[in-house]
Model the fold of this input.
Amino acid sequence: MSEPRRRPPGPAWLALPALAAALAWPLDPGRAPQAPPCAGDLRAPYPESVAEPDLYCMALLPTPRVLDASGVAELRRPPGPFSLALTAEGGIRYRVVLTTHGLPAPAELGAYTTYVAWVAAPLLSSVERLGQVPASGTALLGEVSLDKFLLLVSAEASADAPAPGGPFVLRAQSPSSRMQPADFLEFMLGASSIPAGDSGMAMTGAAAVEDGWGAIPMPAGITMLPAMMELRPRVTPWRPVSAGTVVDARPRELVRLADGDSIDLDAVLVRRRVGDRTLLGYGFNGQIPGPLLWVREDATVTVRFTNRIEWPTSIHWHGIRLDNRFDGVPGVTQEPVLPGERFTYRVHFRDPGIYWYHPHHREDVQQDMGLAGNLVVESSDPGYYGPAHREEILMLDDLLIGPDGAVPYGLERATHALMGRFGNTMLVNGAPSYRLEVRPGEVVRFLFTNVSNTRTFNLSFPGARMKVVGTDVGNFEREAWIESLPIAPAERYVVHVRFPAVGTVPLVNRVRGVDHVAGRFVTEQDTLGVIRVAGAAVDDSIGRSFDRLGAHDAVRRGIDRYRSRFSGPIAHELELDMRTRDLPLVVDRLMQVDSAYFHPLEATGTMPMMNFMSTGNEVRWILRDLDTGAENEAIDWRFRVGDVVRLRLRNRRRTLHQMQHPIHIHGQRFLVLAVNGVPNDNLAWKDTVLVPVGATVDLLLELSNPGRWMLHCHIAEHLEAGMKMVFTVEESASPR
Ligand code: C2O
Ligand code: CU
Done:
């Protein structure tokens, strides 16, 4: 591997240790402290270690009474199990850290004794107290989760003034406030907004065209420009056709496999019912989702795979630290399995947890059409997850269905390269209406896997408490209460939910969408399922133990071995970026307007036409090694088995379009050490991490498995548009 390296801290950071200590900012033992994000030169492309100041720092301007004063607010991620802190409604939660400079003593302004910070809605329709601030210094204030907001500082007679009474001295608008309506004249008049139905953005309208693409569904409530409606991808539309007999898709079956067992898996064309629609899809053994494979920790099973679909394909065993030969990546670990051909996988299951399998070729088509199955690796510890009355294994997905059926895919290249193919029909285990019946007081363990091409869900069960227990490659160090579960493509989470009383509890996805043309946020809510709570209440030790947050001491002890490495040098720094070419003028212009602000999470498909028309020809998504400048497949990292390295992922904000990226690393496991410089204090082993727009995520990657492995974005269309690389792990030189 390449030499560890550090950028020398700039002079601006030198005065910061005391401040950092006061704010409990992470101090790496034996090293210069990392700088708080909003200190130093905010114009530098990368201040040491932290997020893009443009999205996560606000400069406060003085009002005319205090012209020499200034302030900077950091929008800090509150600590928690996810790389993005969300409210159940989908708002982004920030902790405000405000540093003021040069305010006069409050008494100089009148009968005042202190300064107080406030957060206000843009038109001051609501104002909330954030906390007291010094005339010069730093204060850790309350949380903000409004879409657009103002920060205000006023002089007050009392520190606990319920509303601003004295004069305002500092003010700033949130970065999201820069999002303004596009200048319609530039795009011609006639923009229209499709009226919202009940569910806000259920895609209702349709642009009808007879060009082989069929009618493209439009999200309700989103402003569309006429010129946009004409856009089509510059590839051949492809949709499956049924030649001969097609089997009806069946729900998945549970298959328990003992050590040494084998199973046949065939990828086949199926006919599937989705609500009142009949579509062609693909299923492993005719099932959607694919068979639920249940194995014990440490088992090895043989999978004889046959490709009976018309695309080349393969099976990748997502999250499994298996033998590199069986990782299922065409061109890296095996030849593609051509139509009619077979491949035999031997899969060894080393870590308990919830995993999944899917093709690793044109996932935008094959996985979307139904080729995805879950794998449960049962721990040898029967109490691994803690007590629950029952267990539900739920695979989340979405499909893009227009009036003519599923919207065609691109034959030569994936469509939807900008944002990925957001669907308009939400699926749980392949069907649009998930139902569960439980008794009052029951604790249900849900094991969620997000197999959608691009959608990050924000799940909650309104009226029921939820705690997170585990994720991709095992449990967290300890359980934690959560108000919602953000889950990005390819991530898994294990949660416990207690249903307290008779009634119905929906499983909902609630997010904030961005209407890019109108420059505003919109609400999207989808009900993915309904839990009916009925019958006699259960009252037992399981229900009572739910109220306590359990600790997973074995996980913590396992991670203890790595703690001394948390502050080591950064081995590699990857920048997540993109480039465009040959975009239609209207798309390019709108993207320029849009780039004033990128929301940390693009949670839904509110640019349907721009997104649809973009392919890997117009859009290239990039992983860039910041040491060498090498991009995607030109990156050549080398490690040895036993290496434990820090990686830093930086999601670049200053470009034409940005998005969050769920970054997946094959064949190994990692810890998410910190996001935007805020360390995680409750760790779990993962294989996929969501990197929000403009954010910096630090990983500790353990290289435990030799071979050539991929690192890529798990948005299927970003992967197709280039966002991937391969690294090599060599056997360690000396026998271990
Ligand atoms: Cu589930 Cu390379 O991915
Ligand atoms: Cu991506």
The chain is about 10% helix and 40% strand. The first helix runs from residue 17 to 22.
